[in-house]
Design brief:
single chain, 673 residues, mainly beta, 7-stranded mixed sheet, 9 helices, 33% strand, globular, binds 2-acetamido-2-deoxy-beta-D-glucopyranose, binds copper (II) ion, copper, signal, Multicopper oxidase, metal-binding, Cu_oxidase_CS
Length: 673
């Protein structure tokens, strides 16, 4: 034992960014290192005069101060097929409130359904750490017959690209019955989150909070408290497993049945009159006169943006996707899957209970779906459990709160002086300096990406090759594409086993190099890859290629980087496709180049019949997924891989990192099959 510990101490002095695994050189078996740290939680190692100690993950949730020792935060998660309102909830269904609070009871919308859970919770266990801590999560997959991976949304994995959690890009899927250790440094401060990146597990329950507190927040003087109980994770929920939109289980339509706030909501169906009232709602407690930092995570899987309002309370936005912004006060905050917004709420109203309401809008307007939680000023003599069953009924759908000052209303223009509407692109970054170089230089490469959902008819679906599609309803089938290509996963993780890329031209495609048999007028199915040089200044011009006005738009998410938004708007109406593209190609300038300090984000919506331009420095070598954040759009191909740098410029995964691929041997015999 002593000998290993000594090796550890010596090894730490040697750490070089290229061959190290979180500070431990690769010559030390990473597994061994972690085992030492885990087995003996009082074991310490010295790292540049600092102590790093392993803590049970929950103990990392603390106030963060500059210069304090960072921690290794250890979690063990078990993934299981489980049920909402199942046996663990006993008589919750029949009005026994105490049973609803059993630690393994997931109430969700109050309706029993199959789901997948992490440690029998939904959302999964929260991760709240300080910047510089190391997050270690052992994931044991106990889901019969289903693999999984977890993506850490907002973490750029600069030192550990193989921890990004994308199956067949950065790791092998975690097979049932096996476990995988995620381990990475929390270098990206802000409100981040995690979710499954495999199949449709996220929509069935695999999602949770990952907050990285920053001891040096520029907006810190705007709030008195930054508490983990004020993190608000919004998600959508259905009456049964979302696999019903995988072909085979015909469904009347793709639908959001409930909206959950921190995993709690109440199913209600106006048509049938069914209304759940026996499950608890989430309560956020505040004290009169205090200012609180709230952290909102928009964790939807389906196509509805969420509209958040808090009765009689304004929200002052101070951060989005982890990047600090200049304070911006709003009454209504609209967000789309993958985005995060932090806001300050001042408890300045007469003490009482106030409704927090989240409405599914856009395509969901017709579904009239809303979720509720409670903002309570009650003093500590009233238990939270009691407050979770409000005595008053929530406001009716037909009595909406006024919009007031609104962020991200998708039917209005951005950048209009003097009106109440702003969009994410209008927020002003509030970080140490304005990155003039990124804002003002000419990009080294501009990539145009058109996103679209194709309505696939039988002549397209039922001929070779077999293709993935989603069944929205009856015979209405769809396929997601980017630049007319529907993404097919490689058969091995590109980052981990790049030596298996024998011929780039057959392995990958893009819209100038399409595989045989597909052309501009046919959808292509292949591993869509765009490559940029390491350190290039990259501009993505993202646009909606749907040629119709609809309440519908795609949330764009880039892995491994954050970007600035330099322009956003609508394409010329009544223009042909070619003219729209030409408009984008000619639109070189940056709106408000001198005064505006564009916000940093990692997720942004592409307006319907509109566009958004984003820029970033490609300084994180690796294979990074670029995709629409709706589960079905990604699941049916609306994504691609951005290769940053050559494979020899990428960090190498640890030697014992899992590897996988096709198995097959040469057949001796006549002909080709
Ligand atoms: C754990 O570490 C402490 C301090 O290094 C040591 O005294 C103790 O014996 C160790 N315990 C085990 C079980 O190795
Ligand atoms: C596990 O859950 C998923 C998603 O809800 C479902 O599709 C699958 O059939 C379940 N598996 C088992 C063995 O119950
Ligand atoms: C997609 O295909 C259509 C024809 O079906 C073509 O007009 C359009 O230019 C293509 N778009 C892209 C981005 O390649
Ligand atoms: C498109 O694919 C070809 C062939 O693999 C490649 O040479 C080219 O660089 C790709 N274009 C981009 C922008 O990545
Ligand atoms: Cu989409």
């Amino acid at each position: 034992m002593w000998k290993i510990a000594a090796t550890l101490l010596i090894a730490l002095d040697w750490c070089s960014p290229i061959d190290s695994f979180y500070g431990f050189p690769l010559i030390t078996e990473p597994k061994e290192v972690w085992n030492i740290l885990k087995e003996n939680s009082s074991a310490t190692s010295r790292k540049r005069d600092q102590e790093t100690r392993v803590y049970p993950g929950e103990e990392c949730d603390r106030q963060c101060t500059v210069g304090e020792p960072s921690r290794v935060c250890y979690f063990h998660w078990v993934l299981e097929n489980y049920s909402a309102m199942g046996s663990a909830c006993w008589d919750c269904l029949r009005g026994n409130r105490a049973h609803c609070f059993h630690s393994q009871c997931i109430t969700a919308s109050g309706m029993e359904r199959a789901m997948v859970a992490i440690n029998r919770k939904m959302p999964g266990p929260p991760i709240v750490v300080c910047r510089g801590d190391t997050i270690v999560v052992d994931v044991s997959n106990e889901m019969e017959g289903m693999s999984n991976t977890i993506h850490w949304h907002g973490f750029h994995q600069v030192e550990s690209p193989w921890m990004d959690g994308v199956p067949m890009l950065t790791q092998c899927p975690i097979a049932p019955g096996t476990s995988f250790r995620y381990s990475f440094r929390a270098d990206d401060p802000g409100t981040q989150w995690y979710h499954s990146h495999s199949g449709y597990h996220m929509a069935n329950g695999h999602l949770g909070v990952a907050v990285v507190r920053n001891p040096l927040d520029v907006n810190a003087d705007l709030y008195d408290y930054d508490l983990s109980e004020h993190v608000m994770l919004l998600s959508d929920w259905t009456l049964d497993s979302v696999e019903r939109w995988v072909p085979g289980q015909q469904s009347t339509q793709m639908k959001v049945d409930s909206i959950l706030i921190n995993g709690r909501g109440r199913y209600s169906n106006e048509a049938t009159g069914d209304k759940v009232d026996y499950v608890p709602l989430t309560v956020f407690r505040v004290e009169h006169g205090k200012r609180y930092r709230f952290r909102l995570i928009s964790g939807g899987s389906q196509y509805c943006p969420f509209q958040l309002q808090i009765e009689k309370h304004q929200k002052t936005i101070i951060s989005t996707d982890g990047g600090a912004v200049k304070p911006h006060a709003v009454d209504t905050l609209i967000s789309i899957s993958g985005e995060r917004y932090d806001f300050v709420l001042t408890a300045n109203q007469p003490p009482g209970n106030y409704w927090i309401r989240v409405r599914g809008i856009g395509f969901c307007n017709i579904q009239r779906v809303e979720g509720f939680a409670i903002l309570s000023y009650a003093d500590s003599s009233v238990s939270t459990e009691k407050l979770m069953f409000p005595e008053q009924a929530p406001p009716l759908y037909d009595s909406p709160y006024p919009l007031g000052r609104t962020l991200n209303h998708h039917m209005t223009e951005c950048y209009t002086e003097g009106d109440d509407f702003a969009c994410a692109a209008d927020l002003e970054s509030h970080e140490v300096h304005r990155d003039r170089e990124l804002i003002e230089s000419k990009p080294d490469v501009r990539l145009f990406l058109g996103f679209k959902v194709i309505e696939a008819d039988n002549s397209m679906l039922f001929k070779p090759p077999y293709t993935k599609f989603a069944t929205v309803r009856n015979k209405f089938n769809t396929i997601g594409v980017a630049n007319n290509i529907s993404f097919i996963s490689p058969s091995f993780p590109l980052l981990v086993q790049p030596e298996l890329i024998v011929d780039e031209n057959t392995q990958f495609c893009n819209n100038t190099h399409l595989p045989a048999g597909c052309d501009q007028s046919h959808t292509c199915y292949c591993t869509h890859r765009l490559q940029v040089r390491y350190n290039d200044l990259v501009e993505f011009v993202l646009y909606d290629t749907a040629f119709e006005k609809q309440d519908f738009y795609h949330p764009f998410h880039l892995h491994g980087h954050r970007f600035i938004i330099t322009d956003m708007g609508k394409l010329p109406v009544e223009a042909t496709k070619t003219r729209r593209l030409k408009f984008l190609q000619e639109r070189e300038f940056i709106r408000r180049p001198n005064s505006h300090n564009p916000p940093y984000k990692d997720t942004i919506s592409i307006p319907n019949e509109g566009y958004v331009k984003v820029r970033f420095r490609a300084n994180n070598a690796g294979f990074w997924l670029v995709h629409c954040h709706f589960e079905w759009h990604l699941g049916t191909g609306m994504g691609l891989v951005l290769q940053v740098g050559e494979t020899h410029q990428m960090l190498k995964a640890p030697r014992d990192f899992p590897r996988c691929g096709n198995y097959g041997t040469e057949l001796q015999g006549p002909g080709n099959f």
